[in-house]
Amino acid sequence: MFNHWIKKIVIVGTTGSGKTSFLKLLPGVFKGSEVQRKVSVEEKVDDTFTPLESDQFQNSTTTIGINTKSVLFLTSRSNVFTVHELRSNGGLPYSQEEIDSLYPVVVFDTAGQERFKFMQEIGLKGAHGVIIFADGSNMSSIEKVADYLLMVQEEEQRVGRRIPTVVFINKKDLESKGLFIGKDAVRRWLPDPSIKLYETTIYDFDSFMLPLREFLHELDGFPLDINSFTALNYA
Ligand SMILES: Nc1nc2c(ncn2[C@@H]2O[C@H](COP(=O)(O)OP(=O)(O)OP(=O)(O)O)[C@@H](O)[C@H]2O)c(=O)[nH]1
Ligand SMILES: [Mg+2]
Question: Does pTM top 0.85 for this prediction?
């Protein structure tokens, strides 16, 4: 089932930037391919992430495929933005009178390791929007943002339309430890000064909500009107 009113959102970014951690925070059924992360001394620095505590690496997983989740973002009549599980058999989280507009999406979280670059390219195909994750505590992760922007540009040329793209500089919680490279510094590394940058952390889910709202609003065909959605959903 991939209805035309469901948008495909793709997350790319270096390994350890927090893509899967973010996907897991969203409500709904996590469909994925995670394995235990293994430390290898020979591994290139940019092929892994910098664990802050020794057990952080041991307990960490890495993606070896593409994880997905189907979610429904919505704004209420009182202009509150929330996220819910998207069920294929309908069933809205609020009554029709309470809902203003809807953003049904499938989020694709790709494997960030260098050796899986082909999977990011596959994942990006047909994307309606892209979120680039960077580990804000890791300069080599930030440097890669420009490469991902190029990958998106190639897909834009292939499909002949613009693909709204945002950058999440993740791990903002590390700012208090002096380890976080903020968005002003990151901007200097990017070829396009107009690209939208946001600072996020998985320890504060709200840090994702305003960025997501602004991002989803940019996608063609969004937001859906509640009446058209229910008509489609129950047709
Ligand atoms: N301090 C901090 N750690 C984070 C944050 N987000 C993720 N992490 C940690 O970073 C590690 C890697 O997170 P993942 O979500 O697996 O990273 P990923 O981008 O999916 O990595 P790949 O699947 O290998 O591409 C985990 O140990 C997380 O706990 C954050 O906002 N702050
Ligand atoms: Mg992952």
Answer: yes
H helices of the chain, in order, are: 19-25, 54-58, 117-124, 139-143, 145-159, 183-187, 206-218, 226-233
- Going from N- to C-terminal start, the domains of the chain cover 7-233
pLDDT of residue 157: 98
Q: How far is the CA of 97 from the centre of ligand 2 (A)?
A: 38
d(CA 170, CA 235): 40
User: What does DSSP assign to residue 58?
Assistant: H
- Report the residue among 50, 109, 202 best suited for mutation to probe ligand 1: largest number of ligand atoms under 8 A from its CB: 202
How many Cβ atoms are within 10 Å of 59's Cβ, its own excluded? 10
Whether the predicted pLDDT of 89 surpasses 80: no
What is the homologous superfamily of the domain 7-233 according to CATH? Answer: P-loop containing nucleotide triphosphate hydrolases (3.40.50.300)
In the three-class reduction of DSSP (H, G, I as helix; E, B as strand; rest coil), residue 233 is classed as helix
